[in-house]
Amino acid sequence: MNFFRIAIVTLVLATPAFSQQPSGYQERDFLTRVRRLTVEGRRAGEGYWSPDGRRLVFQSEREPGNPFYQIYVLDLGSGETTRISPGLGKTTCAFFRPGTDEIEFASTHADPKSKQYQDDELAFRASGKERRYAWDYDPEMDIYAYNEKTKAMKRLTTARGYDAEGSYSPDGQWIVFTSMRDAYNRTLTDAEKKQLETDPSYFAEIYIMRADGSGQKRLTTAVGYDGGPFFTQDGKKIVWRRFDEKGLIADVWMMNPDGTDQRQITDFGSMSWAPYMHPSGQYIIFASNKLGFENFELFMVDTEGKKEPVRVTYSDGFDGLPVPSPDGKQLAWTSSRSGGAAGQLFLAQWNHEKALEAIRNAPPRKSSKK
Amino acid sequence: MKRRFLLSSAICAISAAAFLSAADTPSRTRRHVEALASTKLEGRLAGSNGERLASDYLIAELRKMGARPLPGQKDFRLPFEFTAGTKDGGSTIALASEMPGGARALSFSDNGDVTGPVVFAGYGIVVPESQDFGYDSYATLDVKDKVVVVLRYFPEDADQKTRGILARYADLRYKAMAARQHGAKAMIVLTGPRSPNAGELAPITFDTALAGSGIVAISVTGAVGQALFASSGKTVEEAQKALDSANPHVAGFELPGVTAGVHAAVVREKRTGNNVVAYLPATVPATTLAKPWVAIGAHYDHLGHGEAGNTLADKADANKIHFGADDNASGSSAVLDIAATLARQPRRRNVLIGFWSGEELGLIGSAAFAAAPPLPLDALAAYLNFDMVGRMQDNKLTVQATGTSPAWAKLIEQTNIAAGFDLLLQTDPYQPTDVSTFNSSGVPCLSFFTGTHADYHKPSDTADKIDYEDLDRVADFAAAIVRRLEDGAEAPQFTKVEQQTQPGGGRAGTRVFTGTIPDYSTDVKGLLLSGVIGGGPAEQAGLRKGDIIVEISGQTIANIYDYTYALDVLKIGQPTKVIYVREGKRVETMLTPAARK
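Output (structure tokens, whole complex):
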């Protein structure tokens, strides 16, 4: 499972299992011809479309010497997969830059200890021990832009602290991203220092910068983890997820690219994250563990958040990180539905008309606060 | 009916074109399935006329596409012999005089004539000491060179728990082995008056591919039973009743003055099945490809009219034609279609096309092929197997045996991008289909499967229920994999997969794990190994494919049943002596059984 543009939360607390009225719809009403895209390696996920819809960029653990994610581009025509990240260290959260040959992603390869961490993790796995999967918010993570033509890599962030979860605006001029630099660029109180040790994601906030890395600006200030931001298809809004202070409840939010007009879209009383706007601009698809702490399913909700979210997936295991294709007719997402704990990348035909109908028929939003 | 979407982006345009052609043109595989699963072919039982007709069809199709018999072979058919059934060949029993109609051989009996004094050995049950139960019908008896009479089944009045234990050792084969190991020359089975089927002869059970169990064994009628006990001063019923509480101290006894002459005759019906094997020669001159062959295959036999006892149909339907449209006309049709596709394309490797028979009786055909392969199996870069690929649900395709090579994951991932299945991968090659045979021979392999269903092994597995559109897609997918295999300069590396559980044939309740893979298809005396499990106790003891185990822990092994019974005696973690025959020589080794996971 995969906690990137999300980042969770190693606490295991049972979320109260809110019951939800059956919507009368099933998975096959929305998703047909489900196909598994990735097979190789231990896990794969976070597939994001190229603007022409012919390729996906994703992260996968699949190389013998490196137990961490690297970034790959999958050509849906030929089936060929090419690694574009350096191969050293950890990477995450890649995104195609529209109108260019660039792909951004976050990487720790500049950290001289990267190789050591790889060897340590491989030795740990070889010892047969297991631990719960958790994303570690490596403070050496920085955002890079890779050029597919020139093969050059340009570093866009340098601040101490985790910089990742980046994505471009539709015009390719801006990157919205998550940073934990706030934990390092000021003096922390004792309580905050303790917080940094146990859950650094508490310090995560949304930032924006130009595509060349200039003009970095903070957009959110609320306590708790703000992360996983994406522009909407028209570039006029940013959709992201905001955790509460304890890091257990998250909801989908939207704001203007300058940080104004921050509005809560869901009030779902669960961990709702990885929101992505459908290219029609009519609804947001996201993941939530509404039905049980480890049972993430895909849901969708109208952009005003007036209706109760509609459940999309009905499969055992993890379903998350939904990304509609640019034409809105397909959906790529990460799922462990084929067995095992680790996710793989899946693709299905997306029934937009049925989705609209189901959202229309959904009951008005209930409040999680009684 | 699945809905089709017309898609705008380029990748999707390709798919859309494929969808359209699928909808507009008839399925390529339909005519094959309909022919193979037709009434005329009567369920294609191995060795039957239906099998013959099915092989005619396959050969005609192979000829059409330009495939040839394998190098050095004149015919597409590669025959193999197997035991298709057993019947009594006039067994008799004589006491003072012959008692007509009084005897019938047990299906696993040796053929022969035995005369000797008679000992009644109760139920003839020996519970291994390892069970800490203490029940041995032979504890106080000397039966060496004598004829033993045993009751069928197990003590009738025992409590549930006791019955549960005794039942495990009450199989007639097990009783025959116990009698043999105590030195008896023959075993007579009597169904006691207090048991079901009282006084009746035991039926001859269906028994494939096995020779006798090393002892003459018959069942006799109640009248013969009375005659046997006449001089003992007890009736059969009294003797049985004394035993029926399962009191371990109630012993059997000699039947004074009785001499029995036993004539046992079992006719094992040998039949000939036919694998159909062809190849498409490479068209591009092979330079120095290490493994210049790629193989695809499927079994084409099925259950006939359910004769072999492996039907799952209700009694009323058990004798009807089992059409086997999914199992495995679907796989055979996929292989024909893949071969036809490959026949039209340039090829860097030879393509072997195998249609196996006798799969339903225990992988007999493919095992016979692998036992005497017409070409060295290490020339095969890979083997792709198709068994039940016609009932796809929700786009789900299971690919098994992916653990046999590190090359598979990448190859499957690349090929499936265009094919677009919701793949379920299973690393395990120890599957109940012919892929298991090729894995045992060290060939990297895959097996394709669309899942089981309610019509499995029933007459209702018919051609009209096949999902032809998706069957065509499976064939396309596999053909693309074969193309990549043909084109690759390197052949996939073979990886031995350690087995999690022992294959079928072992009995429920066996707790020890030895890591042997028995060959179910031969009639050698002993247990022929078709392989050993990587890292398992047998491999560690030095055993390997082709060895014949003849003794384990002091018990002689004549066949697989002896072997499974012998396993009950073994203690986990305690080394035990195993004697096996390799290249005609007896070899001794120590094997340490492990706990079954």
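Chain B has a mean pLDDT of 87.
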